[in-house]
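Q: How would the structure tokens look for this protein?
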Amino acid sequence: MPNLTISTENAEFQIIQSLKLNRTKRHKAKEVFIEGIESIKQAVSAGLEITRIIAPDIGKLSSWSKELIRGNQKAKIINLSFDLYRSICDREEPSEIVVTAGIKPHGLNELALPLDPFLLVFDRPSDYGNLGTLIRSANSFGVDAIFLVGHSVDVYDPKVIRSSLGSVFHSKIIPIQSMQDFEAWVTEQKSINNICIVGTDSTGDVSLLGHKLTKPIAVVLGNEAKGMSVALKNLCDYVISIPISGVVNSLNVSCAGSIILWDVYKNSQSGLAKIPGARTSVRNAKAD
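A: Here is the predicted structure in token form.
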């Protein structure tokens, strides 16, 4: 178990920093930077290989962190000076450790779906918090796979990981760069699973109030500023809207998406009381 003490910026520190800040470096190395105890716990629960355990004082760690070190014998244990540690942490009061971990990205061609798939398609997400919140909602409501279409914020950015509360590590998330390939895949899934493609927009001609969404389904959410692209809208069987009152004419995309995902979840079951493991408690929305 390598044990390093770093008091000034060196090559190892720069690797850690690049995994936090540089999207290209993260994807090339297939490693991510994880801050926040709950997100670290979820990474461990999902079976990710912890590659580094980093702290400002290894000797004063909690029993949980010490057990994490014992359980990851191949990880580098890095003792950073307090100033260097603070420089890589976003939280005002940093947790006692941060880690890096290996990831295994998912691809469209290798995706296996159940008989009645529940999918989420997000068009060019541009806000870290919105993406993380929707991943968290998708995981909570049984979404089988999430597709990110076009150029978007990085799903493995530390801000997305934290706002998803680590649920990103339990989700199948597939980046889509070619609409032609995605359109062909959707056409195939319609034939195999009879899946319905439902767009979402505040001007949608079908109201959620009088329409039940059920599996098999793919819910399409548009970009926060521009809405759905023309190509995605053309894939949709219909577009649904959420009726609201008040002075604003639309909901934040993460709020609207969560409402629609919940509706599918609810209507695709015979009753919440019969859903194995269903919970009704609501946690504070502030991510650890």
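The first helix runs from residue 11 to 21.

The chain has two domains: 3-102, 108-274.

Upvote if useful.
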